Amino acid sequence: AQRKAYRSAILHSVADPKDVGLEDSYQYFEDGIMVVEDGHIVDIGNADDVLARLPQSVAIETFENKLITSGFIDTHIHYPQTGMIASYGEQLLDWLENYTFPEELRFKNPIYAQQVASLFLNELASNGTTTALVFGTVHKESVDVFFQEAEKRNLRMIAGKVLMDRNAPDYLTDTPESGYEESKALIERWHNRGRLLYAVTPRFAPTSTDEQLATVGKLLKEYPDVYMHTHLSENKKEIEWVLELFPERESYLDVYDHFGLLHDRSVFAHGIHLSDCECQRLSDTGSAIAFCPTSNLFLGSGLFNLPKMEKFKVNVGMGTDVGAGTSFSILQTMSEAYKIMQLQQEKLHPLKSLFLATLGGARALRLDDKIGNLAIGKEADFVVLDLHATQLMRFRMKQAKTLEEKLFVLMSLGDDRTVCQTYIFGDKAYDIAGNDNAQDNN
Ligand code: GUN
Ligand code: FE
Q: Its pathway (predicted)?
């Protein structure tokens, strides 16, 4: 197989700053070389060191004024909501009814679904996101076309069909039986096929009956390595509604817990208004939270308490939550995360942000043995970032002296213009110059 080498400044996260301190949480090679073969990283280090052991025959591509880092990981996003991103004026429950459900209805047409899946995956690539945990709609075909498009692109993706059997329009509901059977068939077809993985996906507690939530627990017992993906404790009215619908349960999380939905591959979006007991339970079960700053601000849901999650040792990844989130860019998402921390008199160090956007996300998804940084043996999903992408960034970077300052400017001002190239499993999947986006047929 063909070996290829990339010479550039290279930065990647190797540990959580909270465990090892900032200094030991990353590796940086000002003049580095990364070597890729068969979709995997086979060498990385200072250029001089790698050159000494690299066969002459290996081609080296050199980047100037760029930074190579690991592909971004989005731990919560809805591909069917691409077409209604930036819908005006509502908070969660009305937003779902007025904007989300009517758009999701359109996905009963697999041709529309396929067009949106393709556009969505192009959008992820141009923003440097290489893995995501993705909601489909209630229609099983929505998941088939999504996985087909992801498979074409060699992507590591996790997705699932929405389960929803009440409190939603008739045209968007399944039943405990049909949801169970369809999920099972999709798991058999897609889970662990190449780089693809399946997530059983009840929308959230209010839209599933006890019977349906019980089928989710059953599926997780039958397939212990599939994911569970849902929403949790996002909005105050939502929480009140959950407690009315499930009066016997102690808390919102307890509804999911009661039906056996908490395990080390469970990912809950938001978790803004959680009690200490709920955080402890998430921690004990190895469940993860997806922190979705742009969505939480856009829907006015509240301010996520990251320090509290750290205190309880709950795994946290970043989510855009498009279409409630307003950007596909994890860089923009980190910028908003910083502001959410500021509103709570807290800080978010750029090296912590780098961790959350890459290795932390991989840990939340239990994929840190495969992705999340550029360590030897990992899958070669990486991005080439341009620190001089815009006039403003170039000007501002001149005054940024340290790596940390540069990284912070990158995360505050960066967006899709900053992403020059995105590589998937060792192959270039996107180039800002435009001639590599062959899949773009929308
Ligand atoms: N809660 C239930 N469904 C949704 C959804 O589609 N988006 C968000 N942000 N929250 C939800
Ligand atoms: Fe969501």
A: Purine metabolism; guanine degradation; xanthine from guanine: step 1/1
Whole-prediction pTM:
0.97
For the domain that residue 263 is a member of, what is the CATH number? 3.20.20.140
Shortest-distance ligand to the CA of residue 172: 1
Choose the final residue of a domain: 292, 309, 328: 328
Residues 309 and 377 in one domain: no
- Measured distance CA(207)–CA(176) in Å, rounded: 12
Residues 352, 372: Cα–Cα separation, whole Å: 14
Q: How far is the CA of 426 from the centre of ligand 2 (A)?
A: 30
Pocket test of ligand 1: the residue of 85, 100, 270, 289 to mutate, having most ligand atoms within 8 Å of its CB, is: 100
Residue 36: inside a domain, yes or no?
Answer: yes
Q: Do both 81 and 200 map to the same domain?
A: yes
> Which residue minimizes the CA distance to atom 9 of ligand 1?
324
* pLDDT, tens digit only, all 442 positions of the chain: 699 999 999 999 999 999 999 999 999 999 999 999 999 999 999 999 999 999 999 999 999 999 999 999 999 999 999 999 999 999 999 999 999 999 999 999 999 999 999 999 999 999 999 999 999 999 999 999 999 999 999 999 999 999 999 999 999 999 999 999 999 999 999 999 999 999 999 999 999 999 999 999 999 999 999 999 999 999 999 999 999 999 999 999 999 999 999 999 999 999 999 999 999 999 999 999 999 999 999 999 999 999 999 999 999 999 999 999 999 999 999 999 999 999 999 999 999 999 999 999 999 999 999 999 999 999 999 999 999 999 999 999 999 999 999 999 999 999 999 999 999 999 999 999 985 444 444 4
> Would you call the peptide bond into 360 cis, given omega within 30 degrees of 0 as the criterion?
no
Regarding whether 200 and 153 lie in a shared domain, the answer is: yes
Q: Are 172 and 105 in contact (CB under 8 A)?
A: yes
Q: Supply the range of the domain harboring residue 81.
A: 72-328
Q: Are 395 and 410 in contact (CB under 8 A)?
A: no
Give the C-alpha separation, 334 to 353, whole Å. 6
Question: By alpha-carbon position, which residue is closest to atom 8 of ligand 1?
Answer: 324
Q: What's the domain count of the chain?
A: 2
Please check whether residues 172 and 308 belong to one and the same domain: yes
